[in-house]
Amino acid sequence: QNVTQTLRLTTRPRPSQISTRLRLLSPIASRPLIKQGEYYDGPSRRWSSSAKWRPVQVLDEWVAKEARPISLRQLMVFGRSLTETRLMSSANYVRTELPTRIAHRIRDMQRLPYVVVTNPHISDVYELYYTAFDSFRRIKEIKTSEDNDRLCKEISKMLHAHLTVIPKLAMGILECSDLISAAELDQFMNTILRSRISRRVIAEQHLALTETFHSHWFSPGAKLSEGEFIGEVFIKCIAKDVIEHCAKAIQDLARSANPPDTKIPEIRVNGHLDASFPYILSHLEYIIGELLRNSVQAVIENHRRSRDPTSEPPPVDVTLCEAQQHVIIRISDQGGGIPHDTLPYLWSFGKGPLKNQLLANLGQVPLMAATLQELRVEDGRLLALQQNSEKGGAGGHDSSLSSLSTRPPNLRLGMGLPLSRVYAEYWAGSLELHSLEGYGVDAFLQISKLGNKNEQLATRAAMDA
Ligand code: COI
């Protein structure tokens, strides 16, 4: 790339931005302004003045491009009649879409207050994003299968490198939640997480299509798209099956996380048992897994405090409702409802006053161990793929839930509910909770069942702004 104008790009906002922002921030923020020529070096976590030139104009050019959203149906139609030409256009879509989407998030991070971007966890994420952006933007048009293989290698490498993003963000924002307003912080987190899901979807879809293409290419006569999956899209996701599968994993987890004599609640499924829709299985499993985990644990703890803890605990009831455009999944528990002081922070990533408890919890677990477990759930699909390929397998579509049982049961990053809602909204669905104080909780997950809605890249607050 012939860059005519280069500027020193730093994670710091321009001084004018800093001074306005600093006035709004805590006293920690009021340190002297940056010296000319300094920049923050993420990996070494130091302010440095040695030369590190980054072409700011290049980022501007990419930020000027709009993301081109896709729908589940498009992903399916595209993958159903896969040809080499289509594979190449998928490759070129990913090649330009990834740096575009990452560039927007880098710009968001540059707009964060200085004290927030200098947080070591957040600045690590910034560096990961910048490296990925810089690497993808340099990839030339994909014309041959060899070009595509090189692209796929780069994608796999980045998918792996970015496994640490969620826990780094979780830690970063907990540490910074006094330095930025809760609304700003949640808006930032919602956007960055939604964008991350979107990038991983298009990246993993392309890897899966390439794998499918190769396997069919080398076995002449095999028809494409005969399986239940097209790439990453599970064509006929039967809600009842997913729930029963998740229920079993969550009950096993509850058994291992609680004292041996603990009574584990039954999970019953009723309603429209045939309800089905196309979806990305790992997204649905993540949401259902989180909701059931919360319900089961609440029932166990509430029952322990009840008059007769030796009796059977009340069941968790899952009701399925299939309408013309949607499938609604209601999860009802009798776990006593959500404590009054927790309610305002349910969907917040910063967690308000509850953050100290989370930070204390995390302090008890070595961060890397903690984060890897959390990651296994969030990125279970990828890890399952990796484990399979390490075993020499072809990938397969194992559930992400096997990893749930290896997660430290009491480990909480405080992200489960808000991240579940990000997943639900990403494919134009919704997630709501109603707490019946003293009795239990009803969670409503609504899924758009036709697969014809575009991925929702902008959050509601961003669209209103
Ligand atoms: C992410 O996981 O945050 C990504 O952006 C993945 C992509 C670089 C392939």
Structure, described:
With 465 residues, the protein is an alpha+beta fold. It is 50% helix and 12% strand. The strands form three sheets. It has a five-stranded mixed sheet. Strands 3-4-6 form a three-stranded antiparallel sheet. Helix 2 crosses helix 4, helix 4 packs antiparallel against helix 6 and helix 6 crosses helix 8. The protein is globular, with a radius of gyration of 23 Å. The N terminus is likely disordered. It binds 2-OXO-4-methylpentanoic acid. 2-OXO-4-methylpentanoic acid binds next to helix 4, helix 7 and helix 9.
Mean pLDDT: 79
Rg on CA atoms, Å: 23 Å
Helix and strand content put the structural class at: alpha+beta
Helix count?
A: 16
* Helix proportion range: 40-55%
| Major sheet | 5 strands, mixed
The main sheet orders its strands as 5-7-8-10-9
Reading the helices and strands in chain order gives: HEEHHHHHHHHEEHEEHEEHHHHEEH
- C-alpha geometry: globular
List each distinct ligand once.
Answer: 2-OXO-4-methylpentanoic acid
Strand content: 5-15%
Flag low-confidence runs: 1-37, 220-226, 364-410
Q: Quick one: how many beta strands?
A: 10
**How far apart lie the N and C ends?**
35 Å
Tags for this entry?
465 residues, alpha+beta, 5-stranded mixed β-sheet, 3-stranded antiparallel β-sheet, 16 helices, 10 strands, globular, disordered N terminus, binds 2-OXO-4-methylpentanoic acid
